[in-house]
Design goal:
The chain has 126 residues and is of the alpha/beta class. The chain is built from 3 helices and 5 strands, in the order E-E-E-H-E-H-E-H.
């Protein structure tokens, strides 16, 4: 079984609580499928090139250059977990092979569910 990474849009570091078009911080989770475990590998802050975003809470999910920038920053991840994401950014991110999932659960709970899914998927398709 392959290891993989999950990008979780989280303001507080515990819950997936950010809309894709407003998320500025992602917790990057490294999943070890052999041990069925996970750990936070890094915090990825998004600082869009050439602009000051402090205090800007507008949704930028329809801006292709920003969606592409996010994809490049998170390209080592298989899953992208957000509280909400629209169809347009999902289509753009699909080109980068992201599995985009909407949830509002804790990072811990989401990681456990993805590990369960990957484990059952591997057994039925492996």
């Amino acid at each position: 079984m392959d290891n993989f990474k999950i990008a979780c849009a989280s303001k507080d570091g515990e819950y997936i609580d950010s809309h894709f078009g407003q998320a500025k911080v992602y917790k990057i989770i490294n999943v070890d499928m052999e041990n069925k475990s996970w750990k936070i590998e890094r915090t990825q802050e998004l600082n869009f090139p050439g602009e000051e975003t402090t205090g800007d809470t507008r949704c930028w999910g329809h801006d292709d250059s920003k969606v592409t920038y996010v994809a490049e920053q998170l390209k080592d991840c298989k899953y992208l977990l957000v509280s909400k994401i629209g169809p347009h950014p999902q289509r753009v991110l699909a080109r980068y092979n992201f599995e985009c999932l909407e949830t509002n659960m804790s990072i811990d709970e989401a990681c456990k569910k993805i590990i369960e899914f990957e484990n059952s998927h591997d057994k039925t398709h492996g």
